[in-house]
Design a protein that fits this description.
mainly alpha; transport; transmembrane; transmembrane helix; MFS_trans_sf
Length: 621
């Protein structure tokens, strides 16, 4: 990959010339200009913020060591390779769960799997962020790849639905880690003005693979009774092999930075933070070291948060199958204990945790506005998305290849337009207008989804997904830019993780609601339209497998049952999508310049290797 126009040097703290002309223009336009000129940007002296963690120090030192040379170019090429193979993995395996569970006659459990996976995808980023900050980015990435491979292997060899669920849990941890750390690496080394474009460019492989994946799924017969096993299994080998170059490059650079004794360039420390931490742990017993890391990683908070969300949300997916519904003593106990654990987590994280998952210092107006925008975005999306693919499979008579193409429409729209909007943000140096535009476009798409419950034509279905995809291409990255602009580099990982956490909480809640509606409404409507032709056992078989539902006659009555079942969810998704627009309107319209964020003076500029070597020579004792 050719070097990006992002020039970076996180050790350069000199202020650039002021932008008086831009300031005057922005004032005339009524735009937020407080963070635009460097002379107005708050200065963070060494004592003004928290002590910089080792992972942040090491990533800054790594890019000083690399400079403009083979290491940097190899890193970008490796990130591109990861993006390509990972996108192919996501586009082919994302829909296998419905067919894996149907193979065991347990399709109804797909909602529970979705909720559990969404909870994991939310609670994992904070702990991953702490690992990346506390140790290093490459070591955290190694752990994520390992979990990914183990989880896919479990799914591929599953002999019962319980193993499928367990495999989904493990590889969701890996998936989340790879996605989060890849985006974190990009945020570490790009300036605000280029970050959206780089994210968009890295995601372009999704556009190509959206079409390639259809042929792969068709050739391995991925939607057949056992074809999905090969679909999972092939990536147990492919992804670890393709991630290896990036890990090697990062580990070499990390070792060089540590060997040369690179200082914490943007922090107050005069020696590497990881060396200071090593001194701190010298002479400690194994138990003391374990307790030290448990405290730094906030393990107690992690378990309280995980179990709280799981116990509160999972009963919503089980109430239609549990005897007595919500009156079932087990479900009542789960809800009560979950509520108590949630309160305990809120108290612990807010008042007692030394290293909380949601530190108060990251909460500002823009952070909260973007967090709420993403929360409602994912909440409204997953009211539909939880069962949308299964619903479409039943009501539309497409081939497996074309069904796969349709499922990837949103992905193509999101990734195909992201880099274009990234360029627009680069040259306008603003993000807020694009964020609002994307959210509005996405609401129009939600309206077409609601229309499809009445008139499910191919044109309406495809157009709805295209509009949602284009809206997502700009609104999601704009939320990330808003959050990352509003915090210093030290808090980048945890702020991004908190954003992911509440986005996943939103999707978890809506997945639980959609599972509850699906598990109640579909059987009721099947009884309404097919009750005179099929007995209760036969209807349960139809409901338990989308294979069977698609083949059941009379076809028009089956389709009508599924159409009417989803209509309330589609309407709720349309209404709640407007909440994102309202929340985003309160974010500050930060200037996207050549700095790492809008509140520090860390200018992003890669220098020549010779210049780097000269500075390293001067820094050696």
């Amino acid at each position: 990959m050719a070097p990006l126009p992002v020039e970076t040097s996180l050790n350069t703290l000199a202020l650039h010339s002021s932008r008086h002309a831009e300031q005057e223009h922005d004032q005339e336009q009524g735009l937020e200009v407080k963070s635009s000129p460097e002379e107005l940007r708050p200065h963070f002296a060494p004592g003004d913020s928290t002590k910089q963690d080792a992972g942040v120090t090491r990533i800054e030192g790594l890019y000083l060591v690399f400079g403009r040379g083979w290491g940097l170019y190899s890193l970008w090429a490796s990130i591109g390779l990861i993006a390509y193979v990972y996108s192919l993995s996501r586009l082919t395996t994302a829909y296998y769960a419905a067919f894996a569970t149907s193979a065991f006659g347990e399709h109804t459990i797909i909602g529970t799997i979705g909720v559990v996976n969404s909870i994991i995808a939310g609670v994992a980023p904070p702990i991953i962020a702490k690992l990346a900050d506390l140790w290093s980015r490459p070591h955290a990435l190694t752990l994520a790849v390992t979990l990914y491979a183990v989880g896919y292997a479990m799914c591929a060899g599953a002999q019962n639905v319980s193993t499928v669920v367990a495999g989904q849990v493990v590889y969701t941890l890996g998936n989340t880690g790879i996605t989060f750390l890849n985006s974190l690496l990009i945020a570490d080394i790009t300036s605000l003005q280029w970050r959206a474009f780089v994210d968009g460019a890295v995601n372009l492989p999704y556009v190509v693979n959206a079409f390639v994946s259809g042929y792969i799924v068709e050739d391995i017969n991925g939607y057949s009774a056992n074809g999905w096993r090969w679909g999972y299994g092939m990536f147990c080998i492919l992804l670890p092999v393709c991630v290896s170059p990036a890990l090697i490059v990062l580990l070499i650079g990390d070792h060089r930075a540590k060997k040369l004794g690179t200082t914490a360039l943007g922090a107050s420390a005069t020696r590497p933070e990881w060396l200071a931490r090593s001194d701190e742990l010298q002479g400690k017993s194994t138990l003391q070291i374990v307790l030290y890391y448990c405290n730094r990683l906030n393990i107690l908070g992690f378990f309280l948060m995980s179990f709280a969300f799981a116990l509160i949300l999972t009963p919503m997916t089980l109430n239609t199958t549990a005897e007595g519904g919500y009156k079932n003593p087990s479900l009542i106990a789960m809800l009560v204990i979950g509520g108590i654990l949630f309160i305990c987590w809120a108290v612990w994280d807010g008042f007692y945790a030394e290293y909380p998952f949601m530190p108060r210092r990251v909460f500002n107006r823009t952070f909260v506005a973007c967090l709420l925008a993403d929360f409602f975005y994912y909440f409204s999306s997953y009211l539909v998305d939880g069962y949308f693919a299964s619903w479409v499979y039943v009501i539309v008579d497409w081939s497996d290849k074309h069904y796969q193409f349709f499922n990837n429409t949103v992905t193509v729209g999101t990734c195909g337009f992201a880099f274009m909007f990234g360029l627009l943000m680069r040259y306008t140096h603003r993000y807020k207008a694009f964020q609002l535009f994307g959210l509005c476009l996405r609401s129009i798409g939600a309206g077409l989804v609601y229309l499809s419950a009445t008139k499910p034509t191919d044109a309406v279905l495809v157009c709805s997904q295209v509009l949602i995809g284009i809206g997502a291409s700009v609104s999601i990255i704009a939320s990330y830019l808003g959050v990352q602009s509003s915090v210093p580099h030290q808090d980048l990982a945890i702020a991004t993780a908190v954003l992911n956490l509440w986005a996943s909480v939103g999707s978890s809640i809506s997945l639980a609601i959609s599972a509850s509606v699906w598990n109640r409404e579909v059987p009721n409507h099947l009884e309404k339209y097919l009750g005179s032709m099929y007995n209760a056992t036969e209807r349960a078989t139809i409901f338990g497998s989308i294979y069977v539902a698609r083949l059941t006659e009379p076809r028009n009555l089956v389709k009508q049952a599924y159409l009417e079942s989803m209509k309330p969810l589609f309407l709720a998704a349309l209404i709640t999508s407007f909440c994102s627009i309202i929340a985003a309107a309160f974010a500050k319209n930060y200037y996207l310049g050549d700095t790492h964020n809008a509140i520090e003076d860390k200018v992003i500029k890669f220098r020549d290797q010779q210049e780097i070597e000269e500075e390293l020579t001067e820094r050696r004792p």
